[in-house]
Write a structure and sequence with these properties.
Largest sheet: 4 strands, parallel
Number of domains: 2
Shape: globular
CATH architecture of the largest domain: 3-Layer(aba) Sandwich
Radius of gyration: 21 Å
CATH topology of the largest domain: Dna Topoisomerase Vi A Subunit, Chain: A, domain 2
Strand content: 5-15%
Helix content: 40-55%
CATH class of the largest domain: Alpha Beta
Distance between the termini: 60 Å
Structural class: alpha/beta
Order of helices and strands: HHHEEHEHEHEHEH
Length: about 200
């Protein structure tokens, strides 16, 4: 399809976003064209503000709008327990449970040799420093159950054990409300491996 140059540029820029294909980019671009000038300005300002004001927390490396994020700054959080996640969006997923009361450490990725990402490119040294000086008792590894996530968890477990902390991994297996006949073999194996006494 042929667009006017400014519209083609917008569609092209939107296509580069994760999860946005050509048709979705076109839909979003046409939606932006139909919005009022005020709504368009609000979107532009929101993008500009997030790029200018969002940084990484100096403690956990989650996204924050100041040096220390609200979770790390909170006196109500258990500083002796750190949940290690790959990305900032994983913190949001954990927080939605309202169950975890400790703090987080965001690696900013996972070990992925295929993508050229080694351990030295992640926030692992910072995690080691936190454990060495903060009186941490338990580190929960909450990376995704993928080859890269499992590799990262195994690597972290190996380098964190010498610190004398308890290193645990979140359980993986059958989802709540799931049917066993729809579960793949790897999921069922995990469900069996991580079973617990009732």
């Amino acid at each position: 399809m042929h667009y006017a140059k400014p519209l083609a540029r917008l569609v092209g820029a939107l296509e580069k976003l994760p999860g946005i294909g050509p048709k979705s980019a076109q839909r979003v671009a046409f939606h932006i064209l139909r919005t009022s000038d005020e709504e368009s300005r609000n979107l532009i300002e929101a993008i500009k503000e997030v790029k200018e004001k969002i940084t990484q927390c100096k403690v956990c490396h989650n996204f924050a709008d100041r040096d220390i994020c609200d979770i790390c700054a909170s006196e109500k959080r258990d500083k002796t327990t750190i949940c290690v996640v790959a990305e900032p969006r994983d913190v949001i997923a954990m927080e939605k449970t309202n169950e975890f009361k400790g703090t987080y450490h965001v690696l900013q990725g996972v070990i992925s040799p295929m993508d050229g990402i080694g351990p030295e490119m992640l926030r692992i040294r910072e995690l080691q420093a936190r454990i060495a000086e903060a009186g941490v008792k338990e580190v929960i590894l909450a990376t995704n159950p993928t080859i890269e996530g499992d590799t990262t968890a195994m690597y972290l477990a190996g380098i964190l054990k010498p610190f004398g902390v308890k290193v645990t991994r979140i359980a993986h297996g059958m989802p709540v409300g799931g049917d066993m006949d729809y579960a793949d073999q790897a999921t069922l194996i995990r469900a069996l491996e991580w079973r617990r006494e009732m």
